[in-house]
């Protein structure tokens, strides 16, 4: 997993807030104006697809009355479009124990998106809190916490995730924890940079002169300034987190068996490449489409919300 | 500049020390005893005790930790519990394999990235540009383990063109290197594309044109040369993540690299190898970041002034 | 501008493709060039050590290689013990075994084999404190009355000496304590080690001093390929000549391939699911039997295992000395419900089953299928796939409800499995039964092999009828060879041996 945000954030010392400017690698030329209709499409198409996934993940397994526990070994490894013993149609085929892949993938969507969202929530809140704290207080707190982030960023994130997952053991909660541990510094860095930039701005100084307390300034001046870039980072990170979850599950360090996620389904299919290519292929495509949409959406939001967050 | 470098160096040493401490205690938190794992369920308790003594695990954790730090300072991480070799030499051989893979991937990403980036920049928003942009989105988003599996499916299983695993031949390098290169490829080609588009409007290019230089000299010499350093610098930064991302690729293609060594060592509770892996990878990562940062500082006057 | 960037791009593309093409060409020549006498083997598990006297003495990958290099005093041939380095043996008294060694055997370095080597090897195995050391726990004295006579004295009668000796490899006494020796060991066997990279590869070359028929192969090259798909592709693409340990679904596909031969054969290995008999609700034998009746093993093994397994007839595979057929447990959910009701769990219960990653052929699928059937009678079983180290830790602490695993009785003797795992003192599965202990200890002390077999049949019946665990399946071994690899004979210990193999 190459994570441009991690990588560029890893760039340096708690240096100038210039850092936030170097976040991202997306070099969309300012020179070429984009037509408004296309811009709208770039927002609404991915949003629509993502909404579709969320809906499928929410109600799909219910509609299909999918039971992740029930197997039907006589129906195993059926290609897409097969009729099963109970007369139902397996649109995407069945897996190695005869479970229908379509509802399994929808269930996987539920798990993957939930894990992704939970991770970003946890990492975002913790990261933002630490970042604001560091940026606002500075001094020893800043030095210590940011060194902690350095230690972490001194290690490739996926290897770190592998290490943490192995230490914690595999469970859904631990996946969220693992990925949060690898993700929080990204939020912390951005939040810190934004706080640094904001706290000395005129309106913050004005509030301070008027006798506002620290909490007031953080709440009314810093938080609003931090929130929007963090949302954008979160969107960009969602794709990476979901891929990371799938990768961990693929290494059997992520979601435990019994809870289907995209990664575990792909991992299951790896041993059946010769006889049943669809098990590994289809969930991979589904995952890829989702991540691409999240990526497009993230880029678009970044461009819209704050030109500073994009490359130049 | 020197002061900045020294400060960074001091911080790096601190970071390395922190990583060593964390890995040392974290590994000992995990369930499962290295000696039991090595001897299996039927081992005699006395044999387990003897092996624990041999591994030096009978001492108090603090004593072990001090001993570990003393030895680590001389790059001695002890012997592997699992493989009959010193942890340091295991790490070095596996790191070499990973570095070979990463270097190939890096080359592929740079060469293809420049090629595709230049192609895309020829006609912004043209057909080629759009195809390349979709391609870049895909290469960045696709999970590499899945890409690897798909490559095996197509090139090994269906076309019988490439070996699916191992490190025996140059051909075995192709699929893992390509898989590893894809995310970086997307970064490089975006940078090249946008960089080229910007640069073509810069004064010196305009001047060059005005001087009547041929388009070839303008783009090929002036524009490309000015792009090379920043792009390679940013990509160099990503080299570290290549080393990390290799763990997935190494698993899919059974490449005997550092990522697999580390995951196997974690699974076998081979403390000395895990420690050696983590510290080495962290050190390599830090050095790469440091070099790239210093390059950045040298290259970008704005940053230079701010430090 | 356009033409230039296009040209640059095209040039770079061509460069990369060219590189790729070149590197592939160079491979295809090396790949097919070494047909003359090198057997290319891909092992499914890594060879981490070539020392068969210590921690790895019962390790399948280690033994697979070591058996080509070292020999044993006796071998098991079609279930019967046969002479090998020892020509004959007697029991002067019930506590003493005396072996007459062959006098025409030399090690690969030319030094003759003597009883001192045999003594040193046994001593090394005992001192190595590995998993096989326990087999020799009652040994009191190892004697060498003359150069070609070995005596083993035990403190109590030991009926398993001959079976145990099938895993005692004889190495030169002068080298055996030198750990560097095991980087490239040699013995009296048909091959010797020329290079060894722990965890990755082993190269063997012919031992010209071998007393028997010279092997036709000049070299054997073992390479570890962990992924199933990797091994299958390597096999079909002619990168390797032989591999084993493939899941049944792969075999089904490979049987149709003209370039390959799949050999399936019975082994000493079986599947078992243990219940922790010291933990509620598995303290009740009725609950354990209900677990068995609740699963449709015939359908599951038929679909999942194809020819990779046969329904078990007892707690030990039939090929093992001392195995006996028991009364089958038919698939009967109603009976399972009834047993559960009698035991006080009319609505079932919730429990968990652990196994270690990669422990078992089609393990995850098998677990899924059983869990699905258990759910139908109200028993909710949470799957717990653990790293081996974690699994071992929990297993030995008896910190589990049920566990799935596969095991091999590598000596081919019932004692190895039954007395190791089911004695009350073993504390392996929480099951304690004094009557069973008595039978197993009596069997071990019995020198009359027919009487031993009878005792193991009784012991097997207790383990089976009390449902200490479920024994669903005896595993078949599978070796896949490329056409042109001739003369391979499988053995039930599932350690593929290539001494008799030739290439055409």
Automatic annotation (TrEMBL), chain B:
SUPFAM superfamilies: MetI-like. GO terms for biological process: transmembrane transport. It is found in: Cell membrane. Pfam families: BPD_transp_1 (PF00528), BPD_transp_1_N (PF19300). InterPro entries: BPD_transp_1_N, MetI-like, MetI-like_sf. It is a multi-pass membrane protein. The chain crosses the membrane at residues 99-121, 142-159, 171-192, 227-253, 273-297. Residues 95-296 form the ABC transmembrane type-1 domain. Belongs to the binding-protein-dependent transport system permease family. This is ABC transmembrane type-1 domain-containing protein.
UniProtKB/TrEMBL annotation, chain C:
It holds the Pfam family SBP_bac_5. Keywords: Signal. GO terms for cellular component: ATP-binding cassette (ABC) transporter complex; periplasmic space. GO terms for biological process: peptide transport. SUPFAM superfamilies: Periplasmic binding protein-like II. Residues 80-427 form the Solute-binding protein family domain. The keyword Signal applies. InterPro entries: Peptide/Ni-bd, SBP_5, SBP_5_dom. Residues 1-23 form the signal peptide. GO terms for molecular function: peptide transmembrane transporter activity. This is Solute-binding protein family 5 domain-containing protein. It comes from Micromonospora rosaria.
């Amino acid at each position: 997993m190459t994570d441009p945000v991690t990588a560029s954030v890893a760039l340096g010392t708690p240096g100038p807030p210039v850092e936030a400017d170097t976040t991202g690698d997306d070099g969309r030329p300012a020179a070429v104006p984009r037509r408004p209709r296309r811009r709208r499409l770039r927002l609404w198409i991915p949003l629509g697809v993502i909404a579709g996934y969320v809906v499928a993940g929410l109600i799909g397994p219910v509609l299909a009355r999918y039971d992740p526990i029930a197997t039907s070994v006589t129906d195993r490894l059926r290609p897409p479009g097969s009729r099963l013993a109970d007369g139902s149609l397996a649109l995407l085929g069945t897996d190695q124990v005869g479970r229908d892949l379509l509802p399994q993938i929808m269930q996987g969507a539920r798990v993957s998106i939930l894990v992704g969202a939970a991770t970003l929530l946890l990492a975002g809140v913790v990261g933002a809190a630490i970042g604001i704290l560091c940026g606002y207080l500075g001094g020893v707190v800043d030095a210590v916490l940011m060194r902690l982030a350095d230690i972490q960023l001194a290690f490739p994130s996926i290897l770190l995730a592998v290490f943490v997952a192995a230490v914690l053991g595999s469970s859904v909660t631990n996946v969220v924890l693992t990925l949060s541990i690898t993700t929080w510094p990204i939020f912390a860095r951005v939040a810190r940079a934004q706080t640094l930039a904001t706290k000395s701005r005129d309106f913050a100084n004005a509030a301070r002169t008027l006798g506002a307390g620290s909490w007031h300034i953080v709440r009314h001046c810093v938080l609003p300034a931090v929130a929007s870039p963090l949302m954008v980072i979160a969107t960009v990170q969602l794709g990476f987190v979901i891929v990371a979850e799938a990768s961990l599950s693929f290494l059997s360090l992520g979601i435990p068996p019994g809870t289907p996620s995209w990664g575990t389904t792909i991992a299951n299919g790896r041993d059946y490449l010769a006889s049943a290519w669809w098990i590994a292929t289809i969930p991979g495509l589904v995952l890829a489409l989702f991540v691409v949409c999240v990526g497009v959406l993230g880029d678009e939001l970044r461009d819209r919300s704050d030109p500073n967050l994009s490359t130049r | 500049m020197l002061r900045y470098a020294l400060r960074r160096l001091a911080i790096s040493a601190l970071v390395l020390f922190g990583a060593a401490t964390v890995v040392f205690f974290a590994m000992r938190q995990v369930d499962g005893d290295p000696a039991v794992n090595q001897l299996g369920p039927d081992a005699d308790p006395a044999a387990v005790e003897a092996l624990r003594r041999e591994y030096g695990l009978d001492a108090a954790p603090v004593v072990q930790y001090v001993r570990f730090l003393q030895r680590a300072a001389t790059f001695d991480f002890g012997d592997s519990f699992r493989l009959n070799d010193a942890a340091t030499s295991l790490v070095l051989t596996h790191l070499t394999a990973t570095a070979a893979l990463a270097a190939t991937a890096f080359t592929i990403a740079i060469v293809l990235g420049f090629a595709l980036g230049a192609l895309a920049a020829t006609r912004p928003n043209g057909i080629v540009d759009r195809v390349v942009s979709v391609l870049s989105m895909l290469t960045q988003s696709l999970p590499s383990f899945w890409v690897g599996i798909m490559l095996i499916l197509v090139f090994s299983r269906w076309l019988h063109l490439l070996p699916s695993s191992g490190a025996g031949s140059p051909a075995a390098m192709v699929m893992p290197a390509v898989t590893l290169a894809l995310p970086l490829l997307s970064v490089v080609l975006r940078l090249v594309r946008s960089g080229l588009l910007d640069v073509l409007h810069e004064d010196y290019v305009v001047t060059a044109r005005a001087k009547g230089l041929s388009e070839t000299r303008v783009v090929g010499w002036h524009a490309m040369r000015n792009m090379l350093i920043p792009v390679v610098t940013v990509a160099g930064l990503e080299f570290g993540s290549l080393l990390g991302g290799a763990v997935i690729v190494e698993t899919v293609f059974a490449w005997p690299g550092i990522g697999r060594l580390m995951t196997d060592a974690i699974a076998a509770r081979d403390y000395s190898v895990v420690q050696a892996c983590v510290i080495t990878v962290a050190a390599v990562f830090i050095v790469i970041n440091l070099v790239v940062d210093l390059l950045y500082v040298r290259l970008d006057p704005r940053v230079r002034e701010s430090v | 501008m356009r033409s230039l960037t296009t040209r640059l791009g095209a040039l770079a593309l061509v460069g990369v493709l060219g590189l790729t093409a070149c590197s592939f060409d160079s491979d295809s020549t090396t790949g097919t060039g070494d047909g003359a006498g090198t057997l290319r083997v891909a092992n499914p598990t890594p060879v981490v050590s070539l020392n068969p006297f210590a921690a790895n003495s019962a390790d399948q990958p280690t033994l697979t290689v070591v058996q080509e290099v070292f020999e044993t005093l006796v071998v098991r041939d079609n279930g019967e013990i046969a002479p090998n380095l020892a020509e004959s043996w007697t029991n002067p008294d019930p506590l003493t075994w005396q072996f007459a060694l062959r006098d025409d055997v030399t090690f690969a370095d030319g030094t003759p084999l003597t009883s001192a080597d045999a003594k040193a090897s046994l001593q090394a195995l005992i001192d190595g404190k590995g998993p096989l050391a326990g087999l020799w726990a009652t040994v009191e004295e190892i004697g060498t009355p003359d150069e070609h006579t070995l005596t083993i004295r035990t403190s109590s009668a030991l009926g398993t000496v001959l079976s145990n000796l099938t895993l005692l490899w004889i190495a030169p006494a002068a080298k055996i304590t030198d750990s560097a020796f095991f980087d490239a060991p040699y013995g009296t066997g048909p091959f010797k080690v020329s290079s060894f990279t722990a965890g990755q590869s082993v190269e063997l070359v012919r031992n010209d001093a071998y007393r028997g028929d010279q092997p036709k192969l000049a070299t054997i090259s073992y390479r570890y390929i962990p992924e199933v798909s990797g091994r299958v592709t390597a096999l079909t693409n002619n990168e390797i000549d032989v591999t084993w340990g493939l899941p049944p679904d792969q075999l089904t596909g490979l049987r149709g391939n003209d370039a390959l031969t799949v050999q399936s054969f019975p082994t000493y290995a079986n599947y078992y699911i243990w219940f922790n008999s010291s933990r509620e609700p598995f303290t009740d034998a009725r609950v354990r039997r209900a677990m068995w009746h609740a699963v449709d093993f015939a359908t599951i093994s038929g679909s999942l295992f194809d020819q990779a397994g046969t329904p078990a007839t007892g707690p030990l595979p039939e090929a093992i000395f001392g195995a006996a057929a028991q009364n089958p447990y038919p698939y009967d959910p109603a009976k399972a419900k009834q047993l559960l009701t009698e035991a006080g769990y009319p609505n079932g219960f919730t429990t968990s089953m652990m196994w270690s990653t990669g422990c078992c052929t089609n393990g995850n699928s098998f677990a899924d299928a059983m869990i699905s059937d258990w759910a139908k009678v109200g028993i909710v079983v949470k799957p717990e796939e653990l790293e081996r180290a974690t699994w071992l830790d929990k297993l030995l602490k008896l910190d589990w409800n049920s566990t799935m695993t596969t095991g091999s009785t590598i000596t081919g003797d019932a004692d190895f499995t039954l007395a190791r795992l089911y004695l009350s003192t073993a504390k392996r599965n929480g099951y304690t039964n004094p009557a069973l202990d008595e039978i197993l200890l009596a069997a071990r002390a019995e020198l009359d092999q027919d009487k031993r077999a009878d005792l193991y049949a009784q012991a097997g019946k207790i383990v089976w009828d009390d449902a200490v665990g479920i024994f669903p399946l005896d595993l078949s071994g599978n070796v896949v060879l490329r056409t042109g690899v001739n003369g391979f004979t499988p053995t039930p210990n599932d350690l593929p041996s290539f001494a008799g193999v030739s290439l055409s």
